[in-house]
Amino acid sequence: MKRTLLNIISLSAILTTIGFLMDGDVKEPSMAMRFTEFFAMMGMIFLFASTIYFSASTLTKKLQRIH
Question: How many CB atoms neighbour CB 51 within 10 A?
Fold first, then answer.
């Protein structure tokens, strides 16, 4: 499970970095706001990806028990 969480957070960090670099909006002058936006987006992607992964994993295990 640790490995899975590490993979999901790594994927979240990569996607967030790519999205942050591709963003064409004017950057905030405050570094604190930039870090806040970065980590907030990374947290949202992490929660979304982990929810989908663990829900699908649980559903798959339950379906395998039925057969």
Answer: 10
